[in-house]
Design a protein that fits this description.
The chain is an all-beta fold. It has no helices and 16 strands.
Length: about 190
């Protein structure tokens, strides 16, 4: 079985991975030999499902769903019920990441014509554009305290990592000048 985009549950006692099975269905797999795999989306042949993201309490998962060239974010309960679009807006949506308190989801979208970073309430309301730049912004990742969002931008001509406040203010490049960086990850601060 080929699982891609594995993401470990944020609740350690659940010790499960959420992943996609051949990019067709979102599944939850227990960790360890002989663990079961539970599929909780269908495997429609014309739909691709990728990049699952757990909510902070591990009760919901947001994932990318692509059908007929249109990529949207879908939200589903871990038990498999209630799948629905997270954002009801035109354009391509990708790169979802839950805020640490589980109240917001940051993602990238071209809803306004250019790929920028947005946030939306966990229930899909209150869509807010966080970046507004003529170059592509993508891959938002919340800091562990929820005050900052790291993201990738090409605004300096090359892909680089930027950090901004959670409200979208004060974006600043943190990648070294001239570097091409992607896929930001927050690391714990050594004490």
């Amino acid at each position: 079985m080929r699982l891609s985009f594995p993401v470990r549950s944020p609740i350690s006692r659940r010790a499960h991975l959420c992943a996609t099975l051949l990019s067709l269905a979102v599944v939850i797999a227990g960790l360890g030999c002989g663990s079961s795999v539970t599929r909780f989306t269908d495997a429609a042949s014309n739909t691709i499902r990728e990049h699952p993201a757990w909510s902070a309490d591990a009760s919901l998962i947001v994932f990318e769903s692509e059908s007929n060239g249109n990529r949207t974010l879908q939200e589903i309960a871990v038990g498999g019920s209630g799948q629905h679009p997270l954002v009801n807006a035109p354009g391509q949506q990708a790169d979802a990441d839950w805020s640490p308190d589980g109240k917001l989801v940051a993602f990238s979208s071209d809803v306004d014509g250019n790929r920028d970073i947005y946030s939306v309430d966990a229930d899909g309301g209150n869509l807010k554009r966080l970046t507004d730049d003529s170059h592509a912004d993508s891959n938002p990742v919340w800091s562990k305290d929820g005050r900052l969002i790291a993201f990738v931008s090409t605004r300096d001509g090359r892909p680089g990592i930027y950090v901004m406040n959670a409200d979208g203010s004060a974006p600043a490049r943190v990648s070294p000048p001239g570097a091409s960086d992607s896929d930001p990850v927050w690391r714990p601060v050594a004490r």
